[in-house]
Amino acid sequence: MILVTGGAGFIGSNFILDWIAASGEAVVNLDKLTYAGNLENLASLKNDTRHLFVRGDINDRGLLANLLAEHKPRAIIHFAAESHVDRSISGPGEFIQTNINGTFSLLEVARVWWQGLGAAEKKVFRFLHVSTDEVYGSLGPNDPPFTETTAYAPNSPYSASKAASDHLVRAYHHTYGLPTLTTNCSNNYGAFQFPEKLIPLVILNALNGKPLPIYGNGLNVRDWLYVGDHCTAIREVLAGGRLGETYNIGGWNEKTNLDVVNTVCAMLDEMKPAADGRPYASLITYVKDRPGHDARYAIDAHKIERELGWKPQETFDTGIRKTVAWYLDNQGWVDDVVSGEYQNWVAKNYGGR
Ligand code: NAD
Ligand code: TYD
Questions:
Q1: DSSP 8-state secondary structure symbol assigned to residue 352
Q2: Disulfide check for 178: which of 156, 172, 236, 305 has CB 3.0–4.6 Å away?
Q3: Mean pLDDT to the nearest integer, 324-338
């Protein structure tokens, strides 16, 4: 079996659903269930013995050691993190605690356990660390995309904390020989994404006739990848990635935020036209920019393509269509996540903008 951390979040839950469907191999899912963790994402596995959920913190070393001793996973896939840049600006402490200290705890416990294994088990074990393209900082309009050798230059507390965790993973490979793999992926979108992130926020605000907040001039560029393609890439890296290496994962799909929002609006106009007949894009509202807002991210994903034969299957159009359809079809999930804490966040982040 494998141990997944953060498997009740957006990408982790997509990964577990994909993993069990594709391989049938059992998963122990360790998740603290912060505001971003939601077991409803895994409701379809409720009576499936191949999914074992454990509520806990990656900083709890005793719990981690017990889980490893009891389940003897052949791999750890580490998703657990605080993941939202705007929250890292208003409250960086949790990002240091989970992304840096938590990754350190996980590495330490994994190292001690791995060092005690027999030769055969030691050889097959993998520690796969899931990271972001944001560690590379911001590109100018004509710069080449990030490669695996681009120097790290994180600009937000989120990306700085992820960069620190990437460095620790690297050091555990070089110093102790821990069989690590690191992936640095671009912006994901798809089912189960918490509506603090741009795409689900825009879908839900549009459907509720609320303003669609664009930070600054809307010309910041991100590379977007459908979450299912990210999950496939992680499986490929786990199966065939070279130890100690990092792999960039991206969609070859750079878009300005304005393009993204206009595409989502056009899709909604087609799939669920507004009652008053007005195009959803008429709700676009420019608001105060994010401090330190990175201008552009772009990924050169040739290495994973060359070495492992991975390429994204979805285009932006097909991926966004699936995503919008999912939010339209899953009103119950939406109603659950937008109650409570979510309202506080919306008031805090957008209230004074
Ligand atoms: P998310 O915020 O949706 O989910 C994070 C999950 O981690 C939640 O279920 C949460 O409960 C859990 N968690 C948080 N702190 C924990 C702790 N201390 N102990 C145990 N569990 C804890 O995040 P996501 O968007 O699914 O991202 C998953 C990973 O992928 C992160 O490491 C993120 O940096 C990385 N990543 C995300 C994107 C993206 O576009 N979302 C892109 C590239 C990389
Ligand atoms: P986000 O989904 O938060 O991802 P990240 O900051 O990790 O790239 O934001 C994507 C882009 O959209 C980013 O340039 C910030 C911008 N944005 C807005 O313009 N308005 C919003 O309300 C949000 C949440 C993001």
A1: T
A2: 172
A3: 96
